[in-house]
Each structure stands twice: as structure tokens, then as C-alpha cells.
């Protein structure tokens, strides 16, 4: 099964780098990376030491509803090249494990799909979840902090 790794949409990244407010109505905070685990949700690479980045609240859902989690993410403060969607993103090789959850077409969690998975099983587990008829896409989140990483769909 071919997978597609979907970053934050380009228009969201551009607006947030401009004057747009985050999901909580706050201006994103600008910081300088120490080079240690600052994953950009648009290029899906870590922000290098010395580079500026934004910290902001992000809701990776089209609308606010009970299952539309909002949480902190990082984004290069300056323009970066969005992830190609085809290769395993570098940020998904940075930890030992990740939280994966399946979602239905109604953007609700499909119960029984959530779980912490070893990094080496991430692709395998995403394929298992996406093979289900009730799962439209998968979210990858940090196993430690529950921060949204990216979305996975069938290519």
C-alpha cells in the first residue's frame, strides 16, 4: 500500500508566518532553535540550530468539534519547502515511538485505533489502520507530548 504523508497545508503555513492568529486567537511566538527536537509541521524536518521558528496552537481539523484536538506545534518562521508527501518524513525518525489514531470521514476518532507504536512499526501500523473501511486517515502524534506531527492517507 502506498502512503502519503501530509504536512500542514501551504496556505495555513503562509498565513501563520504572516499576521494570522493561531487556533486560540494568539499571535504565534517567535523563537530561535537550539537544534534539539523542533519539528516543523510544514516541511516535516527539524528546525536547525540558530534558525527562527514559531510556536503556536494548531487544530488539524476543518472545524471545531469534540474530537478536534488543538495543541502546540512548531513551524519554520521563514519559508521552507513543504514535504513531498511520498517519503517518510524525517521528523518521524526522531523518536522511538509515536501515537497513531485512525479517523473516519466525519473527523471523529475511530475507537480501537489509537495506540503507541514503535517507530520501526509506524508504516506497518498506518497501513493496517488504513486498510479498514471505517478509517479515512491517520494522525501521527508525539507519544510523549501528544503533539500533532502529520496526517497519513492512502496515496
From TrEMBL:
InterPro entries named among the record's database cross-references: DUF1203
Protein name: DUF1203 domain-containing protein
Organism: Sinorhizobium terangae
Amino acid at each position: 500500500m502506498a502512503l502519503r504523508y501530509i504536512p500542514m497545508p501551504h496556505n495555513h503555513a503562509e498565513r501563520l508566518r504572516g499576521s494570522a492568529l493561531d487556533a486560540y486567537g494568539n499571535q504565534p511566538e517567535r523563537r530561535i532553535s537550539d537544534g534539539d527536537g523542533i519539528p516543523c509541521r510544514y516541511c516535516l524536518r527539524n528546525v536547525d540550530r540558530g534558525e527562527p521558528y514559531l510556536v503556536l496552537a494548531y487544530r488539524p481539523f476543518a472545524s471545531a468539534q469534540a474530537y478536534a484536538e488543538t495543541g502546540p506545534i512548531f513551524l519554520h518562521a521563514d519559508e521552507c519547502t513543504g514535504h513531498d508527501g511520498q517519503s517518510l518524513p524525517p521528523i518521524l525518525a526522531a523518536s522511538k515511538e509515536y501515537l497513531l489514531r485512525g479517523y473516519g470521514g466525519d473527523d471523529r476518532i475511530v475507537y480501537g485505533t489509537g495506540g503507541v507504536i514503535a517507530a520501526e512499526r509506524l508504516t506497518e501500523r498506518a497501513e493496517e489502520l488504513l486498510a479498514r473501511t471505517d478509517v479515512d486517515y491517520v494522525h501521527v502524534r508525539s507519544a510523549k507530548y501528544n503533539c500533532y506531527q502529520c496526517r497519513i492517507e492512502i496515496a
